[in-house]
Amino acid sequence: MPGVAFAYGSVGGYAQFVDHAGNAIGNARSAEGFSFDPNPNLSAVHIVAGHAPVGPHQVLMDLGTAHKHHFATGQQVRVLLPGKPETFTISGLVKFGSADNLAGISLAAFSLPVAQQLFNSREYYDTINVLAKHGVDNVALQRAIARVLPPGVQVVSGQEIASEYSNAISSALSFITTALLIFAFIALFVGAFTIFNTFSITVGQRTRELALLRVVGASRRQVFRSVLAEAAVTGLVASLIGIGLGVLAALGLKALLGAFGITLPSSPLVFEARTPIVALVVGVGVTVVAAIAPARRAVKIPPVAALVAQLEDQRDSLRRRIGLGSGVGIVGLICLLVGLTEPSIGLVGLGTLALFVATAMLMPIVARPAAGVLGRPLAALRGMPGRLGRENSMRSPRRTAQTASALMVGMALVSTIAVLGSSLGRSATSEVNRAVAADYLVTSGSVSREVAPTIAKLPGVETVSTVYEGQFDFKGSLSSLHAISPVHLSRTLTLQLTAGTAAPALAAEELLIDSETASSNALHVGSVVPVDFAQTGPTQMRIGGIYMQNPLVGSFVISDKLFVSHFDNPLPVADLVRTTTGATGVDRELNRALAPYANLTIQSRSQFEQKSQSQVNQLLGLIYVLLALAIVIALIGIVNTLMLSVFERTREIGLLRAVGMKRRQVKSMIRSEAVIIALLGAVVGIVIGTGLGVALSWSLRNNGVTVISVPLGSLILFLVLAALLGLAAANWPARRAANLDVLAAIATE
After folding, report:
1. 165-193: pLDDT as tens digits
2. Which of 247, 450, 531, 623 has the fewest CB atoms within 10 Å of its CB?
3. What is the pLDDT at residue 433?
């Protein structure tokens, strides 16, 4: 066409490299094969070593994969394909733009004729890349090309394609951003308890100083501003330090996500200009807000306090604390219940936050008796130091409660995740056992079409059902779609029908949906619904059956024949294998016959159940690691409080040393106090977290959580760990207390 400088038709499909040890590199979703475009002005990849592929046995590999798995030009590499695996020679290495690969995706580039043969695309192209001549109006050319193409073929600019790729990658990784922001908020929330507690203690310690300021003429407003100014300076300094530590933490976090199988783009970390601004605003803001209540308490100190020593700052009315805390708790409980019923993640988060605040407000009421009960065993085991530690923790219930509150939040969240995770794991095992009738499952992101015929020929195999997975538009919403053959369906897949039929409906090219989808959309057997396929366009389908939720095939199922007619060269994602009664050695035969396909996972039904639970445990492991940050911050709060407490009780500790208390007894006293505080926070947190976990599990009863499980062993372990962490947190304050100079301590006012 006039105005076109160059046009190149290309095809693409599944092509996954195998490393030197015979293991598939990455997974099927992160493996991309395509035909290499020799025009450097059009191609997204460019050769940095070697040459373009020539002939049927050469391939280009992306530089990132080559470096990571020690491949070089001229070496042989095995490639998994839609058909049988083949061996190629690496003719060259490529980059995607300036990156070593495309966001962790391995790239395999072939010559056009070879790619067309491998991906069964001999009669058409997937894409035609067009380069306009210099000075040509791109928009006019785009419209001219669109006029001569068949209906359904789209003509889009390169900028639109780049934007779509960028948005797709950002969307795929957005859950990481959301998760990290949630954990950042948790860390700030826990840190706010420590800041509040610290300023409450320091205001109490400076009662006489603040009262003297009032005596010499300082107004309440000036005292209030002085405390907030101190908080602002503290927050500013801490935020500057935190920005530097945050960069180091980001490096470690990237490695952590990689260890849990989450592949991030290979580009370096980005430090945007807004990052320090947001960090400073949030850091200073949280510190100042947390210091408001202590600052208000400071302005209430009467000038006469300069003449009279006050051991405790003024206490709020017990009735007021109970009323306000109960009110916040009721509001939080209502928000939580409504959020779980709707469901609404925002209301759940707000309700949980309100419950934590209410608990922190009410904890001083129970702190004294609870500390007495928790400290009694220590008093019996450690003698006088244990008794003194118990009495110290009971002396100031508010301080003990405030210090324990930070750990309470962390332990509550950990316990919530433990209960939810245990329920998910038990439910997954139960659901898989009820959903799958096959004896073996052969799974991968992409299973070669040759696998099912190969399995069917093995001795002892009765039937093989191939499972496909794709996406379609269901009533205006993008949804996941599965497909399976209706032949011998009940021998490999268990669909618990509540209405209609299964195999007959699939054979009639009807749609099966799960009961949750049917209920939420007011659908029944016989309903006709609009659907849209990317390749074939909009159509309508009749509902032929409704089944209870099945974790293997999701919410929508059609026949494999119908699926293939709506998708271009789809590859299966699994093969379900049913063996004959009494057959032995089938697993050995499966492993032998499928050895060339390195990407396949061959599992018995029990192994598949265990893997489903292990995947839940892996996700829980990542969450636990991130929640550990909140626990660390809470422990810093305990250290901080004990250090301030040691400073406040310098004269008291000196007198104890003067009347014969040994250094190790002083250490034991401080450690006992720390253990009591940690146990108080852990016990309250575990109780609240268990309740939240049960509530969350119950709310997900229609989303696959069929068993509510409370892992008592894990909860007891958390309690023991809390005591040990409290003991560790007390080490520095205890050493400082034990090393005080006796005479100097006694002389301290």
Report:
1. 777 777 766 777 777 888 888 888 888 88
2. 247
3. 73
Residue 640, pLDDT > 80, answer: yes
Q: Is 476 left (phi over 0), alpha (psi -120 to 50) or beta?
A: left
CA distance 355 to 349: 10
SS3 assignment for 517-537: HHHHCCCCCCCEEEEEECCCE
Greater confidence, 481 or 212? 481
The size of the chain, in residues, is: 749
Q: What is the pLDDT of residue 59?
A: 96
Residue 11 neighbours by CB under 8 Å, 6+ apart = 34, 35, 112, 115, 116, 119, 121, 124, 125, 126, 127
**Tens of pLDDT along 734-745?**
888 888 888 887
User: pLDDT band for position 312 (50/70/90)?
Assistant: very low
Run of H or E including 379: helix 345-382
Q: Which residues contact 648 (CB under 8 A, 6 or more apart)?
A: 201, 205
Q: With a cut of 60, say whether residue 475 has pLDDT above it.
A: yes
Q: How far is it, in rounded angstroms, from Cα 598 to Cα 446? A: 11
Separation of alpha carbons 491 and 440, rounded Å? 12
Q: Calculate the CA dihedral of residues 172, 175, 176, 180 and round it to 10 degrees.
A: 160
Do residues 686 and 412 make contact, with C-beta atoms less than 8 angstroms apart? yes
User: For residue 65, with 0-12 CB atoms within 10 Å meaning exposed, 13-18 middle and 19 or more buried, which class applies?
Assistant: buried
Token pair belonging to 213: 């300021």
Question: Residue 342's beta-bridge partner residues?
Answer: none
Q: What is the pLDDT of residue 469?
A: 93
Percentage of residues in the chain with pLDDT exceeding 70? Answer: 96
Q: Residue 384's Cα: distance from chain center in Å?
A: 47
pLDDT at 325 (0 to 100): 86
Q: What is the DSSP string of 156-210?
A: --HHHHHHHHHHHHHHHHHHHHHHHHHHHHHHHHHHHHHHHHHHHHHHHHTHHHH
How many Å separate Cα 216 from the centre of its chain? Answer: 56
Q: How many C-beta atoms lie closer than 10 Å to residue 718's C-beta?
A: 20
Evaluate whether 107 touches 48 at the Cβ level (below 8 Å). no
CA dist., res. 175 & res. 182, Å (int): 11
State which amino acid sits at residue 307: L
Kindly state the average pLDDT of the residues 120-143: 86
Is residue 309 pLDDT above 60, yes or no?
no
**3-state SS, residue 466:** strand
Per-residue burial over 313-332, b = 16 or more CB atoms within 10 Å of its CB, e = otherwise: beeeeeeebeebbeebbebb
Which strand (E) or helix (H) includes residue 441?
A: strand 440-443
CB 545 within 8 A of CB 489: no
- Helices 663-699 and 712-729 cross at an angle (nearest 10°) of 150
Is the pLDDT higher at 533 or at 297?
533
Name the nearest CA neighbour of 354 among 372, 336, 379: 336
Assigned token pair, 695: 């509530």
Instruction: Tell which residue, 8, 2, 5, 88, has the closest CA to residue 44.
Output: 8
Average pLDDT, the chain: 86
* Of 511, 640, 481, nearest in space to 573 by CA: 481
Domain spans, the chain: 4-155, 172-314, 343-434+606-749, 445-599
Instruction: Report how far residue 576's alpha carbon sits from residue 603's, in angstroms, rounded to the nearest whole number.
Output: 10
